[in-house]
Amino acid sequence: MKSRKTKMKLEWDLKKHYYKSEKDPQIEKDLKKSERAFKRFVQKYKNSQFTSSASKLLNSLKDYEKLMGLSVSKPAYYFHYRKELSATDKVAAMELNKLEARLTELENSILFYEVALAQIDKAKQKQYLRSNLLSDYREYLRRVFRDARFVLSEPEERVLNLKSMPARSMWIAATDKILNQKTIVHKGKSVPIHGALMGYMDKNKKERHQIYNKAVTVLEEVAPVVESELNALYTDKKINDELRGYTLPYEGTLNSYDQSVESLESLRKLITTEGYDLSRKFYSLKKKWLKKELTFIDRDEGRSKIAKIPFAKAVTICREVFYEVNEKYGKIFDEMLESGQLDVYPRKGKGGGAFCSSGINQPTMVFLNHNDGLDGLRTLAHEMGHAVHAYRSKLQPVLYEGHSIATAETASTFFEGLVMKKLLNKSTGKEKVELLNKHISDNLKTIVMCIARFEIELEFHQKVRQCGLLTWQEMRNIYVYHMKKMSGRAVKVRPIDGMHFVYKPHYRMNFYQYSYSFGSLVSNIMIARYLENETYRSEVDRFLTAGESLSVDGIFKSIGIDTSRIAVLREGLALLEKDIAEFARLIK
């Protein structure tokens, strides 16, 4: 592994990768360039017969691909990132609102094209999918034709696009703005609410409860706003689903992720039975090991504290793993660290959580709220796994450069899991028990708890559809019910523990959470195969570079994993069961 030659940057360098300021003339130049290109496309294809033959369709698809290759959203990404860095950046908020209206107008201008593709009759769809002339676009057309029955008329699609900002985006932005400005006082210091909630689980029990109780007071103050926000979002989604003809609240998400309802139902059934059993078994073992009562926020606790992992050390550990898997991944890691593509530490006004963001012909950016605990290390590995996936997917043509959320969460948890395996292999004795305890706890969060969260979100949606409204107290109680079901009698889940839904962004993301569970189960299989035989790294890279060139099932089949079979998903769960058995053996 090569050492890094330059100093890593701990904050985003938006001036380097995007624009110097809101007054940068390049912003308007980029927008004008996109608007001219969209106008030319509309003039060329609006009211034309571009779907009448394979050759005409091919020419239109080539032009459409060029259009999609423009950095249309670059200004919007810039102002979005500024808002994430500072909730008080009013200029960014105003510019983003104006931009969203402008970009929606562009999106609406080419709706005719997407609607026309969806309206191609069944016989021609089959003909075009068999056409050698259209072979480069076969997978793209397959997805378009599959979703055709959910596509509305052009005027209806236009209305849905126009209302998305006031009915959804602005609600979420309001909640974010309120939360991002909240702080608690701990040990005489003002701590951003997101920083407190990201780091409290790594504190000792007394401090953990002090921080959490103060945070809950803030969350209860914000809860009435969140109540209105979530009711509005869920009602808006109900309207959209009814218009499109979706029968299940999560059907649209599955379509967009290129997965079947049947695959999700298999996952839910496996986790809410066998997965919940493993969760309850582990917490029962922990209660006996610790010889004390566990509350919900104590469920990750061990007997002794794990040594701190400062960011520099976390970087060293992750780099070693990334370089071991493939030197290309290590170089991506270094490039991002050195060029201001990571924003590392929490601060007042900065948004919460962590994410990786990447657009067509745009740099990949990673957002963290790093703490010096094991969670900080895992999050770094997770988000940089997303980043490597984004980089490698860019080897695909523009229409296939993206990737499903299902494969994205597989990539991130693959690297996260390898980093933990590296730590566990280097540890012995009590240190190994403590690390294994944390590793299993975090795996349960990802594989099992994320399905519990999916069930919570589903009940939120169902109750709003049935009753018209849910109070925040009812949302809190639904959260508590499902967490009790997952945790079992060994863990005491209190009413205040139900306040997590207030600040977790996932309840605003339309059933996104199941993808963590799916991705972790599949990445567990990939990790086991890689550790057994390092030549499997070629399959890992085939997966990472696939983008959207195949369906999700097709991508995994190409590396020898049939995700349509419940037995395969159970194979991933079996690895968690093995870790729990090892924990049980060690604590004796």
How would you describe this protein?
The protein is mostly helical. The chain has a domain at 14-172: Butyryl-CoA Dehydrogenase, subunit A, domain 3. It is built from 24 helices and 7 strands. It has helices spanning 14-17, 25-45, 54-68, 74-85, 90-109, 111-118, 122-130, 138-146, 154-180, 193-199, 205-244, 251-257, 261-290, 311-325, 327-338, 374-393, 405-426, 429-467, 472-487, 500-503, 514-532, 537-544, 552-557, 566-587; strands at 183-186, 189-192, 294-295, 342-343, 355-357, 365-367, 491-492. A 3-stranded mixed beta sheet has the order 4-6-5, covered by helices on one side. A two-stranded antiparallel ribbon has the order 1-2. Strands 3-7 form a two-stranded parallel sheet. Strand 5 and strand 6 (365-367) form a beta hairpin. Helix 4 (74-85) runs antiparallel to helix 5, helix 14 (311-325) packs across helix 17 (405-426) and helix 17 crosses helix 21 (514-532). The protein is globular, with a radius of gyration of 24 Å. The mean pLDDT is 93.
